[in-house]
Amino acid sequence: MTAQVTDRVKTAQRLLASSAKNSYDPLLDIDWDAPLAPDGADGLVYLPPERVSLYGTPLWDELTPEQRIELSKNELASIASTGLWTEIILMQMLVRDAYHRDPRDPGTQYALTEVGDETRHVIMFAKALERMGCPDYHPPRFIHHLARLYKATARGPAMYAPVLVTEEVTDRLQRATMNDETIHPLIRMVNRIHVVEEARHVRYARGELSRMLPQLSRPRRAWHNLVGAIAAASLVRVLIDPKVYASVGLDPKQAQRVARANPHHRETVRWMGEKIMAFLDEQGMVTRTTRPIYRAVHLL
Ligand SMILES: [Fe+2]
Ligand SMILES: [Fe+2]
Fold it and tell me: What is the mean pLDDT of residues 106-125?
């Protein structure tokens, strides 16, 4: 066995052992019946105010404290909806990939373990949406159908780069809020569970990405860089559904324009993407062609 193969096998074995020891069952590990104060009466928020897309704008100043909590709840719900949708995409891609692999390979077994984690995450996020009384903010129809083509064909770095972007972007937010006592305890617990299990997913995907990239020819690399950047940017673009603004009586289109131009919001997106963009840059996936794509959604 070459050094790279043994490293890959060792990583997979470590991740399998860690999964066996430290995994959650959100159906049992979360108190779904804990009371949830209506209309933000308990003063607890769902996102830190400075991470809400309108923070710092005149529109934000006009909102009452209750409306600000309501907006934080709906933005979190939008991130959870988009998150669970990407997890379903990821599961399909991992299963499709496993079809071609040796089931005895620890790497295949870890990929399937990850499918198990994501199945539980999707249900956890869906139950949280239900509990918060929020809609499923599913991405727009056009993106929904474009993603069907993507998930049926993407493999290798073009598959792992956008997966890492969505996992790491949400991870940054969840890590920063899982111990914040101004955040609703239900959300804190959801975030904590997700952070623990996603750390393994990130480890696996980063390993696969850096192992696969050097094996590609230059034109193939350029193709993976491009497809990966377009998919990642599209996912970040739909994270906040404009319909969230209607929950506090704002015009969705107008509020979305304000949010997209909001320097605080742009800084939040950049902060969320900071770690993964540094990694993709290190891997040579941020190029003259792809940098403007990442810049357009403020990941850079
Ligand atoms: Fe997940
Ligand atoms: Fe994940």
Answer: 97
Angstrom distance (rounded) from CA 171 to CA 166: 8
Ligand 1 centroid to Cα of residue 84, in Å, is: 7
> What are the φ and ψ backbone dihedral angles of 183, each rounded to 5 degrees?
-90, 145
Q: Mind listing the pLDDT tens digit for each residue in 46-66?
A: 999 999 999 999 999 999 999
Residue among 236, 231, 116 nearest 172 (CA): 236
Give me ligand 2 centre to Cα 260, in Å.
27
* CB 54 within 8 Å of CB 259: yes
- 45 phi and psi, to 5 degrees? -105, 175
Q: How many residues does the chain have?
A: 300
Whole-prediction pTM value? Answer: 0.94
Would you state the structure tokens that stand for residue 102, as one six-digit string? 């040796």
Answer whether 123's CB lies under 8 Å from 27's CB: yes
Ligand 1: centre distance to CA 191 (Å): 10
Distance 93 CA to ligand 2 centre (A): 12
Q: Residue type at 256?
A: Q
